Amino acid sequence: MKICPICKTKFDDSAEFCPQCKAQLEEVKTAAPQKKEKIPKSFWFTILGVFGFILLVILVYNIIYAGVA
Ligand SMILES: [Zn+2]
């Protein structure tokens, strides 16, 4: 699909110029809409790893602390 940059009218791919504005049409990518910033899977693994590490530290700390007390 193509679109006129001036009047924003949509045309077929076969069209080259807007018949009203005589402007060259711009290619419109319909397949890929605005890319939303997706959170990568690795991010969740990192969060999970950090939380797991904190939990482990707390657990180990509690064990050591309980042993002392
Ligand atoms: Zn136009």
Structural notes for this entry:
The chain is mostly helical and 69 residues long. Helix content is 41%, strand content 9%. The chain has one helix at residues 41-68; strands at 2-3, 10-11, 26-27. The chain has a three-stranded antiparallel β-sheet, with no helix packed on it. Zinc ion binds at residues 4, 6-7, 9, 18, 20-21, 23.
Quickly describe the structure.
With 69 residues, the chain is mainly alpha-helical.
Q: Any chance you could write out the topology, listing elements then pairs?
A:
Layout: E1 2-3, E2 10-11, E3 26-27, H1 41-68
Antiparallel strand pairs: 1-2, 1-3
The structure holds zinc ion (ZN).
Zinc ion binds near residues 6, 7, 9, 21 and 23.
- Count of distinct strands: 3
Supply the number of helical segments.
Answer: 1
Oligomer type: single chain
Q: What's the main sheet like? A: 3 strands, antiparallel
- Which overall shape is indicated by the principal axes computed on the Cα atoms? rod-shaped
Strand content: 5-15%
Measure the end-to-end span: 73 Å
List keywords for this structure.
69 residues; binds zinc ion; 1 helix; 3 strands
